[in-house]
Amino acid sequence: MVAAAVILDPRQPIAGLADSKLLEPAERCRLADLIRERAVAYAVAAADHAEIDQLNILQATLLAMHRALRALKVAPQHVLVDGNRLPATDGLLGLRSAVAIIKGDVCVPCISAASILAKTSRDALMVQADTLYPEYGFAQHKGYPTRAHLAALDRFGPTPLHRHSFGPVKSRLR
User: Fold this and answer.
1) How far apart are CA 98 and CA 129, in angstroms?
2) Domains by residue range for the chain, with CATH
3) pTM higher than 0.90 for the full model?
4) In whole angstroms, what is the distance from residue 32 CA to residue 27 CA?
């Protein structure tokens, strides 16, 4: 689970920000470069497969969000989060407000930017995983349960990177 936090610079707007899932991979990468170049601050953080298995996907997502917020080099005054739950905001000095916005990645530029950085970072991790476990095709399906991924799970079983609590993996544990 990868999450990001972004503080955009209002003096350097970035055209084309949108929900990362709606963007073509090349456009996501182009925008990710612009975000890293123009943002006042950004951070990317994760919760690994063991944390997801231990906590559950929602709590691991909130943990990754919390880590990203804490990693910002500039303290945020206002936090806007995609979804209907807020991560813990303890330790964020100067924080005035935090708001969860359902489908925020579609309509709020800083959330769109965070979604783009999180997705491109996660995709890069999947490409790295592909070098360790090329038979799984992580570089192509990016860890999503496609037919090819499920077929690899059937043939080779789960890798140490797989979340054992995820249904398609859990049902294939040997």
Assistant:
1) 34
2) 2-117 (3.30.420.10), 133-174 (no CATH)
3) yes
4) 8
